[in-house]
């Protein structure tokens, strides 16, 4: 059984608890152990880097050091946590002065980061480490006929890490296919959901959300699948405000990819956190059927 | 005779992570502005802002709302033919404007960022309800009611924490931050 150090991030404690629950269930179902990093702290999101770059790296390094101490690669389900942690690890590995300075601060919590681990997004674990064949095998109730808009969002693919295709990634589509569903041609799949603009520039964020929802509806999607708690929140929780603001009538469910995987694997919906959403997913659940 | 760095040189060197950002290689092609999902809300497009920086128009740059509209989607960054990290540049400008305390009065970003950072340094984790005062007062009545409605729904669905989270080793965490920005033990 492969084991990872799991860094859930602040959103998954409450706002995106269903992402956490479905991540635990699905990783367990494919024989992967996620050991939560004890006493982890906030990654700084986008806002910390607005104020102080060095302090932002220090906070992230504390989580990295604890993951390394446990002896496993770090896995983050949130795209912002993933991006911040990935790049902090990279910079600390490349720059000895920076690493010395930050390790001097980490001493205060009896920690040290030497840069011996890798940082992965949860989806990478499924696609690259577990493998799509294995996921296909575990799929007992394929979601045949379900049209899924695979919404990558931003930070899972950008900035460029090393080898991945930033203009035309296909891994999310392949994952959707592996659970028997149909990935739709979703032109806006790499567009921004507005992120924290939902707080600081409401009009701009709602416009971006509206455009994304419209594009998904135009692609005849039954559901938008996300891999980030902020994307899910902006697209789902603010869908009502979009309807008020733009006189639209959207009612499209926004689900975590792990929830879709979970129902395709026949896991109980309650354990996948289904029921805490604003937009009913009842119709989506009816697609999960044992093959005739 | 010694010369001081220009504003554009200063801004180009504000980022540790990229060891300098090659702003002077900008060819003004506009790929960033064409890519940016929020360009229509900005007073200057990203291309224009880089032009202003390179022309050392410091006041115009700092007064601009452009960098506060950047949501860090990094779409411009991956497409720039001159390999300028444009999203990184926007971060640099946010930091610069907070240091200088120079930004337009209607920008919510600086207050939100500072409130967020203070709350993290206090408890180690983010707690949505403490962030509300940084922006809620800027809302009109309708927005306020919408927000209250959304918050109520989230609460009913159990998606807002009641008790603020806090690290177990919060004292160590604070001492750790103190080694980066010495506060002399001040809380």
Would you write up a description of this structure?
The complex is a heterodimer of chains A (292) and B (187). With 292 residues, chain A is α/β, with parallel strands linked by helices. Chain A has 2 domains: 2-121, Up-down Bundle (Glutathione S-transferase Yfyf (Class Pi), Chain A, domain 2), CATH 1.20.1050.140; 140-285, Rossmann fold (3-Layer(aba) Sandwich). Helix content of chain A is 47%, strand content 10%. Chain A has 13 helices and 8 strands. In chain A, strands 2-1-3-4 form a 4-stranded parallel sheet, with helices on both faces. The model of chain A has no long low-confidence stretch (mean pLDDT 96). Chain B is mainly α and 187 residues long. In chain B, 53% of the residues lie in helices and 0% in strands. Chain B is globular. Chain B starts with 6 loop residues before the first helix and ends in a 7-residue tail after the last helix. In chain B, 35% of the residues are buried. Chain B folds into 2 domains: 8-100, Alpha-helical ferredoxin (Fumarate Reductase Iron-sulfur Protein, Chain B, domain 2); 109-180, no CATH class. Chain B contains 12 helices and no strands. Chains A and B meet through α2, α3, α5, α8 and α9 of A and α6, α7, α8, α11 and α12 of B.
Order of helices and strands of chain A: EHEHHEHHEHEHEHHEHHEHH
Helix content of chain B: 40-55%
Number of helices of chain A: 13
Report the structural category of chain B. mainly alpha
Number of domains of chain A: 2
Largest interface: pair, residues per side: A-B, 68 and 62 residues
Overall shape of chain A: it is: globular
Main sheet attributes: strand count, strand direction, barrel closure of chain B: none
Named at the architecture level, the CATH assignment of the largest domain in chain A is 3-Layer(aba) Sandwich
Give a nutshell description of this structure:
The complex is a heterodimer of chains A (292) and B (187). By secondary structure, chain A is of the alpha/beta class.
């Amino acid at each position: 059984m492969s084991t990872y150090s799991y860094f859930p991030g602040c959103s998954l404690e409450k706002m995106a608890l269903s992402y956490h629950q479905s991540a635990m269930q699905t990783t367990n179902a494919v024989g992967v152990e996620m050991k939560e990093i004890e006493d982890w702290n906030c990654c700084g999101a986008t806002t910390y880097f607005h104020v102080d770059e060095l302090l932002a790296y220090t906070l992230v390094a504390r989580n990295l050091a604890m993951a390394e101490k446990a002896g496993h690669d770090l896995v983050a389900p949130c795209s912002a946590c993933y991006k911040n942690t990935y790049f902090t690890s990279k910079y600390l590995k490349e720059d000895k002065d920076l690493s010395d300075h930050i390790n001097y601060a980490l001493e205060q919590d009896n920690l040290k980061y030497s840069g011996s681990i890798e940082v992965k997004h949860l989806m990478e674990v499924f696609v690259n480490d577990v493998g799509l064949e294995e996921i296909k095998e575990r799929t007992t109730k394929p979601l045949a006929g379900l049209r899924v808009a695979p919404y990558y969002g931003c930070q899972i693919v950008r900035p460029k890490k090393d080898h991945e295709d930033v203009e035309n990634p296909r891994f999310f589509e392949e994952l959707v296919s592996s659970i028997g569903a149909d990935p739709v041609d979703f032109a806006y799949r790499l567009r921004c959901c507005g992120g924290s603009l939902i707080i600081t520039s409401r009009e701009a964020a709602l416009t971006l959300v509206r455009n994304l929802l419209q594009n998904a509806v135009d692609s005849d999607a039954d559901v938008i699948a996300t891999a980030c708690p902020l994307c899910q929140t902006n697209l789902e929780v603010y869908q009502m405000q979009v309807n008020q603001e733009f006189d639209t009538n959207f009612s499209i469910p926004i689900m975590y990819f792990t929830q879709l995987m979970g129902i395709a694997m026949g896991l109980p919906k309650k354990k996948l956190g289904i029921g805490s959403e604003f937009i009913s997913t009842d119709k989506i659940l009816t697609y999960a059927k044992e093959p005739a | 005779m010694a010369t001081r760095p220009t504003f554009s040189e200063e801004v180009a060197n504000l980022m540790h992570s990229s060891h300098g950002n090659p702003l002077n290689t900008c060819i003004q092609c506009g790929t960033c502005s064409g890519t940016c999902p929020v360009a229509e809300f900005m007073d200057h497009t990203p291309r224009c802002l880089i032009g202003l920086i390179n022309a050392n128009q410091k006041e115009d740059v700092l007064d601009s709302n452009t960098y506060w509209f950047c949501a860090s989607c990094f779409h411009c960054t991956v497409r720039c033919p001159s390999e300028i990290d444009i999203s990184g540049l926007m971060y640099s400008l946010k930091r610069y404007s907070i240091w200088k305390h120079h930004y337009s009065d209607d920008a919510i970003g600086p207050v939100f960022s500072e409130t967020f950072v203070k709350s993290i340094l206090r408890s180690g984790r983010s707690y949505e309800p403490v962030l509300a005062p940084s922006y809620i007062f800027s809302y009109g009545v309708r927005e306020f009611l919408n927000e209250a409605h959304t918050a109520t729904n989230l609460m009913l669905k159990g998606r807002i924490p009641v008790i603020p989270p806090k690290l177990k080793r919060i004292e160590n965490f604070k001492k750790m931050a103190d080694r980066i920005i010495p506060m002399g033990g001040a809380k």
